[in-house]
Amino acid sequence: MNRPSMTAQRHLAAFLCADVAGYTRLMASDERATLRLLAAHREVTDREIVQHGGRIANTAGDSILAEFPSAPDAVQCALTIQERIAAINDAVPEERRILFRIGVHVGEAMVRGGDLFGNGVNVAARLQSLALPGTICLSASAYEYVRRLVPLDIEDLGPQRVKNLDEPIQALLVHPAAPHPAKAIPLVHSHFEFHLIRRVHLLCMQALSEIGETAGLTGIDVPALASIIDEPGLNPHRLAERLGIKPAAGQRCATRLAQRGLIRRSRSSDRRLWALNATPAGVETRLRLRAAVRTAQDRILAPLSESERSLLKGLLVRVIEASAGRTSGERKEPHRLRSGHDRPDR
């Protein structure tokens, strides 16, 4: 039986090394909120690395090591990551912001079993330690590949002596473009909670639509599938009630999920309504999408601390339960008025 070779293979590549500045302090201050915000940032970093043609070789807690076939791809990826994270952080209190330091170097490294190691990786790691939070530090070799191709705001740090390297390395600090200022909330919206809640609902639905598209679903189909798994055998009217949509929309939602093979419909005991149950494919799809929903939720709520999120959740539950109670009473009232002697005068 042939075993795969574990011989290290040498090759030239551009290496990106990133870690979170002040990670220990952030974790000590609010561990759960830090982990949630880091997960939202990692969604950005991982997506950008893949979109720029890179490969993530190693990740450990707050650090990332990736390789790229070209220096321009690595540097452009680093710039995009810093700019997108700065935009997210713009709404986060300064003491809770997660900032990456990134180093980029072009050199030789070895690959064994998918892992990267060697002098090229070591230099990228040392450059990352020289970067300021929110910036990128390039080696002279990386800069030579990109200086005519990628516009950069450069600060020459000169030769730098770093740990475990005999020779000093020429380091150049890159300052990403400042994030665009967030659009101000219209004055009329800021005076009415109703408008603010509507805008948050829009953010949530946009996120659900993006998640649903990955499975060929609409945005509302994602929570619909979760509701059917949470309450097996519910009917379309009950589904609509749980989702806060009209019964006809609940019927259409059930039809779409059935057509995708994610649920099956059978007649309920009273033969008047369909009973909805998830198929194995539906359960698998829900599990796959659940992580994406959690990440999107963390991204939207990134400006809030853990205690603020808990408070918000409690307030929303109170509003929803109070509204459900009023709606239930309104539905029952006409039936009481139409019965017997309580019928209103004509």
Description of the structure:
With 346 residues, the protein is α+β, with helices and mostly antiparallel strands. The chain has 2 domains: 164 residues, Nucleotide cyclase, GGDEF domain (Alpha-Beta Plaits); 138 residues, Winged helix-like DNA-binding domain superfamily/Winged helix DNA-binding domain (Arc Repressor Mutant, subunit A, Orthogonal Bundle), CATH 1.10.10.10. Helix content is 51%, strand content 19%. Strands 1, 2, 3, 4, 5, 6, 7 and 8 form an 8-stranded mixed sheet that branches. A two-stranded antiparallel sheet has the order 9-10. A hairpin with a 2-residue loop joins strand 2 and strand 3. The longest helix is centred in the last third of the chain and has 32 residues. The C terminus is likely disordered.
Distance between the termini: 92 Å
Q: What is the strand content?
A: 15-25%
CATH superfamily of the largest domain: Nucleotide cyclase, GGDEF domain
Return residue spans where pLDDT drops below 50 for at least 5 consecutive residues: 332-346
Write down the domain tally: 2
Helix content percent band: 40-55%
Q: Specify the overall morphology.
A: elongated
Please summarize the sheet with the most strands.
8 strands, mixed
Helix-strand makeup class: alpha+beta
For the record, the CATH class of the largest domain is Alpha Beta
Mean pLDDT: 84
CATH architecture label name of the largest domain:
2-Layer Sandwich
Fold-level CATH name of the largest domain: Alpha-Beta Plaits
What's the helix-strand series? EHHEEHEEHEHEEHHHHHEEHH
Task: Give the radius of gyration.
Answer: 27 Å
Number of helices: 12
DSSP E strands, number: 10
